[in-house]
Write a structure and sequence with these properties.
The chain is of the alpha+beta class. 35% of the residues lie in helices and 29% in strands. Strands 13-12-11-14-15 form a 5-stranded mixed beta sheet, with helices on both faces.
Length: 356
């Protein structure tokens, strides 16, 4: 990974989700990393709807609380936008090209790479190393998103006292975490020639991601996540959704209508199944080495069981804290690891070059 010589400057990743902010601070330790701080701050309902921030001031206050919880001097931060708002493409360029030359090439070919006027987008690129099949070339990942999709998140982070150095894309951050922890936690699955199916199940959406060979091969974002189940279980809107989530985490489902639960699980699989069908229709590799569940859905036993019953390959609730141990004072977040997959990937992004 070329981590030597990174120095002691920490990397801070902040994932602004629909229901909570998750933050991870890393430091480089030889050829690996160590988590030194972590924080999770709950957000009010409907503060973020369809990936759009409805109240920047409220979000900034929540981010200030996150910063206070971290008790860190680090202000340089990596944030993210949703993959539904971004475009990522890989290009091959000469291995001897430096950043300036790569940037010039991207701008020259912008019309073919980015389906928006260059003046309306922000873009960044990251070298993925030597091209495996094209000698003398390197793979470069180009990511672009409309400026307005970035600005609100940057504004909220900066109002909270952070300095935004990079705005990444959520599925790329998820890929980065998987590529770091899977070789240690599940080497047989990671070394399999078949890709991995990642299901990012949050309170607001289901994102189906296929990864393999260090790349995001496919992604499909569909609105409607765990929040639909919470609303169905709390028809009158009088029960805190955090309490519902806690009961479901403990597998205390006896008091809930089996029809409501089964209807949700059926709809969840329908979303996943549709994403798989679309991926398979355009890919030579039709099967998967395994399924990785992440985010809040990965913390619910009934979701893990339901997905396991639908497929013939391993289904894993991915907890990156099983590889990157938390400091003792953050041990209460250990079981929340699946919710921190993106935040960890953002923190890891701090240790590769960025461009302004």
């Amino acid at each position: 990974m070329g981590l030597f010589g990174l120095g002691k400057k920490p990397g801070l990743g902040i994932d602004i989700g629909t229901d909570a902010i998750k933050a991870i601070e890393l430091v480089a330790q030889g050829d690996t990393y160590e988590i030194v701080r972590a924080a999770e701050t709950q957000l009010p309902k409907n503060l973020i709807t369809d990936d759009e921030i409805t109240d920047i001031e409220k979000l900034a206050r929540a981010l200030k609380q996150t910063r206070k919880s971290l008790s860190s001097r680090t202000v340089d931060v990596v944030g993210s936008v949703s993959g539904s708002q971004a475009i990522s493409k890989q290009i091959a360029v000469g291995i001897d090209l430096d950043d300036e030359a790569i940037s010039e090439k991207i701008e020259t070919e912008a019309e073919a790479l980015i389906p928006f006027p260059l003046a309306e987008v922000r873009y960044d690129f990251e070298s993925l190393g030597e091209h495996p099949t094209m000698p003398g070339q390197q793979r470069v990942l180009v990511t672009a998103t409309r400026t307005m999709s970035v600005d609100t998140r940057v504004q909220a982070l900066e109002e909270a006292g952070f300095k935004v150095r990079i705005m990444d894309v959520d599925n790329q951050a998820i890929l980065r975490t998987c590529d770091h922890v899977m070789p240690h936690l599940y080497p047989d699955l990671y070394d399999n020639k078949l890709p991995l199916l990642v299901l990012d199940i949050s309170s607001a959406a289901v994102q189906t991601i296929v990864i393999g060979g260090g790349e995001v091969l496919f992604t499909r974002y569909q609105s409607g996540g765990l929040g639909q189940l919470f609303s169905a279980l709390d028809g009158e809107g009088k029960v805190d959704h955090g309490e519902l989530f806690a009961k479901l985490r403990s597998d205390e489902v006896e008091e809930f209508s089996p029809l409501v639960v089964q209807d949700f699980l059926g709809n969840l699989w329908a979303k996943v199944s549709r994403g798989i069908q679309i991926y398979r229709s355009n890919s030579p590799k039709k099967d998967f080495a395994g399924v990785l569940l992440i985010n809040s859905g990965a913390m619910l036993p009934m979701v893990v069981q339901a997905m396991s019953e639908q497929v013939d390959y391993p289904v894993i609730s991915l907890n990156p804290f099983e590889h990157f141990p938390l400091p003792d004072k953050y041990s209460h977040l250990q079981s929340h690891g699946p919710r921190f997959v993106e935040a960890l990937g953002l923190a890891l992004r701090s240790f590769t070059p960025w461009h302004t």
